[in-house]
Amino acid sequence: VDAAVREDMERFTETFKGIKERFRLINRIGEGTFSTVYKAEDLEYDHYDNSWDLEEKENTKWSTPPLKKRKTDMQGLADLDEYAQQRRRPKYVAIKKIYVTSSPSRIYNELELLKDITARPCDAVCPLITAFRHTDQVVAVLPYFRHTDFRDYFRNMTVPDMQIYFRSLFKALAAIHGAKIPIIHRDIKPTNFLYEPDKQRGVLVDFGLAEREGTDSKPCLCRKSIPERRHRVQNSVAATMGPSNGYPKNDSRPSRRANRAGTRGFRAPEVLFKCTEQTTKIDIWSAGVMLLTILSKRFPFFNSADDVEAMIEIATIFGLRRMKMCAYMHGAVFESNIPTIGNAGFTLEKIILWSTCRNDSGKDGAEVPLTDEEKMAVRFLERCFELDPNKRISAEEALQHEFLREEVY
Ligand code: ADP
Ligand code: MG
């Protein structure tokens, strides 16, 4: 462990009252926009229960029995720790130190969602062990999951490897989307899905941007029936003004506000078009971007600086015609005179062949077509990339798709 990290860990354990009596910090494993994560040993782990640390002294599996005591709302972090006392505890934990600059409501939201998820355990979703606060600093304690950096394995994944990887990711999504009030993760991307290729096990982490479906949403055209949508669009200001060149000068339309939280390149088109009634389907799109990344062996696949560039990237692939329709359904207008955006776009198959240099302009001048199993992956990808969120596959349906379905012999 390098000196700067050691110093940072010492500063943290010295200032956070009570932490060093209970945890021995081992290393710093993550440093993001919203938190710093440390690997630590829980000094009060269950010595009597050695199911945690089999050969490798690592948690091979962490599952939580349902909580004995259930409460509808979180009555404080002390309560949470009380629940933790009732469960078996792993030896190695990840301590997530949430930056004090995060708003209390944001921190509360993350812990509340994690607590709810923990009450209905799923192997593919990281549960919460406990949480502590000292003055303005809050830490969440999670079981530690060994994982490999995505960049070190994604280029080598075979289609069967992808099936295992995405089966696990979609099980996680089905679990959170299937909550009584569905949970939208909002930040599905490789660094938030901890995967260990050797063990073929993955866990979804990071509920820092997650929210319940329906939270501060206002009716959006996309959720209306098609005849009603047509009626509204025909009467809308955008339709009466007609397509304009560039931005209208005296635009009297109210500005639109919508949650745009997430990571560049993984945002669904409805997020870019500021849909005011976003659903769990935004996570399915992001999972699709992960699959496209693996199939095309390019990371990051989309590399835009802002939302408009992101729209251009999507329009280039899916074509102007579909992109305009997509904008329209959220009450927006998409216009472009960029010559590289064609009306019809390209098939995902073509995009993958180009990205992997297997098209006929490759070095041998011959096209190396997709294999049957790659074509199956592409059929699944097309379902994740439906521009209309209502038509896009759900996590539950995805698990029944030929690409993810587990064959029963
Ligand atoms: P942030 O909101 O800062 O992105 P995350 O919850 O995504 O925080 O954690 C940041 C990083 O820390 C992850 O990408 C991962 O590498 C590591 N990490 C988080 N939780 C765990 C865990 N339970 N086990 C092992 N590593 C973890
Ligand atoms: Mg993260």
Automatic annotation (TrEMBL):
Chain positions covered by the region annotation Disordered: 239-262
One Gene Ontology term, aspect cellular component: nucleus
Residue ranges occupied by any Protein kinase domain in the UniProt entry: 23-404
EC numbers, comma separated: 2.7.11.1
Record SUPFAM superfamilies: Protein kinase-like (PK-like)
Keyword rRNA-binding: no
Chain segments annotated as coiled-coil in the UniProt record: none
Protein name: non-specific serine/threonine protein kinase
Organism: Cudoniella acicularis
